[in-house]
Amino acid sequence: MNRFFKFLFLLGVFFNAHFYLFSQNNNEFYVKYIDTLDLRRHLTQLTSNDFDGRLTGTAGQKKAADYIQSQLMEMNCKAIGGDFYQAFKLFKDVRSGTISLNKHKLNFPTDFGFFSLSQPFSFDISEFLFVEKLEVEKDYSDYYLIFQSKNFSSIEFDLETVRCKGFIFILSDYDERYFLYQSDDYKLALDSIPFPVLFINQKSLSSNFMHQLKKRKKPALQITGSLNENPVFVSTENVIGFIEGSDSLLKKEVVIISAHYDHLGTKDGETYFGADDNGSGTAALLELASAFQQAKLDGNQPKRSVLLIAFTGEELGLLGSTYYTSNPLIPLANTVANLNIDMIGRKTELFETDSLLMVYLIGADRLSLGLDSVIKTTNNTYTNLMLDEKYNALNEPLNLYYRSDHYNFAKNGIPSCFFFGGFHDDYHKPTDTIEKISFEKIAQITRLVFHATWKIADAPNRLSLIE
User: How does DSSP classify residue 6?
Assistant: First the structure.
């Protein structure tokens, strides 16, 4: 064969191979970028001693965030607004304070208590109204409202719906034990009520004061005090990567893939490594970013955009996803679905082998039968995992549907699901370590998430909601 014909032959082979490659569905090609070696590399980093168990707000958590960011940057993922971090503050609910009523000092918590505040608060109250029956629609903005009640359970309205400066409840059946509990956990500032809510023990007030109050007279009253004088704050951050879709209109919509990267830190000198919970899901998230970003670099990405979120604060009560859904980087109205990954790294059933692996599917059919159908169809076509839905039952006693980050999207009417590998004896223990991980199980579940995400992102229409 002379050189010219040999050149034509090789050129034909090249174009035939290229045509064959991209005549496949793109998702079938790019799923190959999900790799057990890379999963092991990521999880080795996330469970290293340097990361100290990744407790929210600590140096270890921030090192994990830096690692996730560095990997997204290395892949050439984009950051919305130029920053991969969505930073926010948490405060510790450590209540303290002093108040005086007509210069008579009241002690916390025997004489008074208060709902948590996320900032110091000082007050000098002389403008108030005694209210027997609240008119919720009325504007009380210039006043503190004083009520007589029996106990906490007798308060029958939503405090945050009332326009006023604050509330003072005088309780005949006051129980200081409610205020003795001090949590070491942090909370979002948006979870606290933005004005003071005081509860005063009726037994701590003078009989004359209560006599006038019962007669609905306005006794001379001045309440001064300061609450939460030394609040404790920490900063933390979600880490977010963005892969823009190919369609000029549909790319404004987004499918979110999420996994929390925080864990429990160290206790009594022992590190809680969190290899399965949720180092496994975080490693999967990075591999998903790699596969979708390679498709983007080749110009073959799906029509809609994909947002990959590593959430902080899940172990403290879904705080990272709560913050994101209250402050979304892309409007929730443009969020098509959330696929959440949490603990997918252990073979938790005796029958599981590398050729027969299982995952629990939670929430897929709660809001959209379309989401449920896409996951099951793609599984039958590509991954052949055993899908178990026992934790999805409405009467399931562990309530797992409400216990991972997908739930904050579901609360906002967004079709959402939770991929879960199952419980094991090392759950929330220092023994949740990398040598017990099945990387083949992580890889296969990650491939299912990839295929399902691609199908949702590339479909002409959004998932329909159950009416």
Answer: H
First vs last C-alpha separation in the chain: 68
What would the DSSP string read from start to end of 190-248?
A: GGS-SS-EEEEEGGGS-HHHHHHHHTT------EEEEE-SS-EEEEEEEEEEEE--SST
Angle subtended at Cα 449 by Cα 447 and Cα 452, rounded to the nearest 5 degrees: 105
Residue among 306, 315, 311 at smallest CA distance from 427: 315
In angstroms, the CA 371 to CA 364 distance is 6
* Most confident stretch, 44-48, 184-188, 192-196: 44-48
How sure is the predictor about 349, in pLDDT bands with cuts at 50, 70 and 90?
very high
Distance CA 45, CA 437 (A): 14
Structure tokens at 177: 């034990």
How many CB atoms are located within 10 Å of the residue 427 CB? 14
Any idea what the Cα angle at residue 70 is, between residues 307 and 287, rounded to 5°? 50
pLDDT tens, position by position, 68-89:
999 999 999 999 988 999 999 9
- List of domains in the chain: 26-88+233-458 (3.40.630.10), 97-230 (3.50.30)
187-225 pLDDT tens trace: 887 666 667 888 999 999 888 777 776 665 566 678 888
Angle formed at CA 31 by CA 36 and CA 339, multiple of 5 degrees? 90
- Chain CA centroid to CA 465, Å: 22
Write the pLDDT tens digit of every residue in 282-293: 999 999 999 999
